[in-house]
Amino acid sequence: MSSQVGQQIRGAGKKPILSYHNVMKRFGNFTALNGVSLDIYSGEVVCFIGPSGSGKSTMLRGTNALDPFDEGQVFLDGSPLPTSENEARHLRRRMGMVFQNFELFPHRTALENVMIGPVTVLGTSKDQAAKAALKLLDKVGLADKTQNYPANLSGGQQQRVAIARALAMEPELLLFDEPTSALDPETIGEVLNVMKTLADEGRTMIVVTHEMNFAKRVADWVVVFERGQVVEQGPPEQIFDDPHTERTRNFLSHLGWHG
Amino acid sequence: MKLEWSVVWQYRWLLAEGVLVTIGLTIVTMAIAVPGGIILALMRLSKNRFLSGFSLCFVELFRNIPLILVVYWAFYVMPIFVGIELSAFATGITALALNVSAYNAETFRAGINSIRQGQVQAGLALGMSRFQVLREIVLPQAFRRIMPILASTWVSLFKDTSLVSVIAVGDLAHNALMVRSQTFRVLEMLTAMALIYWALGYPQAKLADWIRKKFEVKE
Predict the structure, then answer these.
(1) CB–CB contact A116 B144 (8 Å)
(2) What are the structural domains, with CATH classification, of chain A?
(3) H or E stretch covering A206
(4) Which of A92, A104, A106 sits opposite B127 (nearest CB)?
(5) For chain B, which residues lie within 8 Å of any Cβ of chain A, measuring from their own Cβ?
(6) May I ask the CATH architecture of the domain B6-214?
(7) CB–CB contacts below 8 A, A to B
C-alpha cells in the first residue's frame, strides 16, 4: 500500500480539522520548515517524528501561533489561521499545549495551575473551576496532590498536571511538544499512559515525540520530518514495519529501531 | 565633659513626632515608588521607542544624581521651573519617590526579565492576553524573586528619608538636629538619634530577611 492510498482511506469522506499548505518558517538564515503540506483529521492521534531540528516542534508552535509561520496557509476547520495577536488568543483557547519542560506556574498549586485557564480566560467561577480541576487531576491520577506546588512534584507528576491544565480549557485539539523528553525514564510511562487514555477517548492529538513505541502503539498516523520537510507519512504499520523511503529507514535505524 | 541625657527625655514628644513623620515618609514613598517602578519597568520593556526611551532617561537621571540634590531641586527649582508648589512633606516625598522609583524600575525590570519565556508561552497557550500573562504569571513570580531587593531598598529608604531634613520636613533627623542646635547637646542628641534609627531599622531588616524566606519560590 502506498502512502497516497493510505491517505485516501484515512481521509475518506471527512474534512481535515487542520490542513497545512506549503508552510514555511525561517529563523534568520536557518530554514526550519521548508514547504510542509499535511492534513490532520478529527479524532486522530498524529505523531511527528524525526531527528532533532527537523521542524517538528516548529510545526506545533506555528499551529497555535506562538511562533507564526512565515509563509503558506493553515486551515482550522476550513477557515484560515488568524494572523493578529487578538485572534490568535481565540485560536489558542481551542488548542491545548503541553510543553517539554512542563512550564507549570511555580507560584500556584497543582489545583490552581489547572484552574487558572478557565478562571482567567473564560471567566469561570472559582468554585466551578476548582470542581472541574479536581476531576481532571483525578483523571491524571493526582487527586492526592492537588495542594502541592510544582516544586514538590516529580517530573512525571508535573507533566500530568500540565496535561490536566491543558484539558481544563476543553480544547478541540491537543498539542504535545516532546512531553516525555525532559523526564526521568521511570516516570515516562505514567505520562504516556495518561496520553494513551486521552487517545482512547478519541481526542485529536498531535504529538511530537521520540518515543517510537508510543508512536507505533497509539498513533493513527505518523509523519516523519527531516530538514523542515515531510519525508514520509502513513499509518504506523507502514512507517515502522515497512518504511517506503530510505530516509525514514535511516532515521529509524539510527534510533536502533528494528521493527 | 558633662553629659546631660535628660535633654532627650525632655524633647521626647518632638522626637516621637519626628519618628512618625519618618515612618510616614517611608510608607508613602514606597506606596508611590512600587507602582511607579512597575510602570517604568513596563515602559522600558515595551516595544514603543518613545516609552522605553523616556523610561531609560528617567531611570538613568534619577539613579545617578545624589538624592540630596534631588531634594534641593524639588524644593528650590520645581516651584519656579515646573510651577508646582508643595508642602515640605510633599516636596520630600516627591524627591524620594523620584529616586526610589528609578531604583525600583531597575529591580522590576530585572525581575520580569528573569522569568523564563516558557512561562509566558504557557500562559499565552492557554489563551491569555499579554496583560493577563503579566498580571497572573510574570509579575507574581517576579515579585517573589525581587522581594529581598525591595525589602533592602525599603531599609535603605527608611534611613535615607533623613536627607529631607535639609528642607525642614519635621522628620526624626530634622527634629533631633533642631533640638541639638537649640540646646547645644550635640553628643546626646546625635547618639539618641542613632539609637532610635537603629532600634527602628534593625527589626525592619530582620523582617526583610523573614519576608525573603517566606516568599522564596523553588523551581
Answers:
(1) no
(2) 1-94+174-184+203-259 (3.40.50.300)
(3) strand A204-208
(4) A92
(5) 116, 118-119, 121-130, 132, 136-137, 140-141, 144, 217-219
(6) Orthogonal Bundle (1.10)
(7) 68
Span A170-179, average pLDDT = 96
Cα–Cα distance between B21 and B26 in angstroms, integer? 9
Average pLDDT over residues B154-173: 91
pLDDT tens readout for residues B7-33? 888 888 999 999 999 999 999 999 999
Q: Which of B47, B126, B216 to mutate to test the interface with A (most CBs of A within 10 A)?
A: B126
Answer yes or no: are the C-beta atoms of A238 and A259 closer than 8 Å: no
**What's the sign of the alpha-carbon dihedral A9, A13, A16, A22?**
positive
**Chain B residues with CB-CB distance to A85 below 8 A:** 130
**DSSP letter string, A58-104:** HHHHHHTTSS--SEEEEEETTEEPP-SHHHHHHHHHTEEEE-TT---
ipTM value of the model?
Answer: 0.91
Instruction: Report H helices in chain B.
Output: 6-10, 12-45, 49-63, 67-72, 78-81, 88-113, 117-125, 130-133, 139-160, 172-183, 186-214
Asked if A99's CB is within 8 angstroms of B121's CB, the reply is yes
Mean pLDDT of A225-238: 95
- The answer to whether A55 touches A32, Cβ cutoff 8 Å, is yes
Percent of chain A with pLDDT over 90: 84
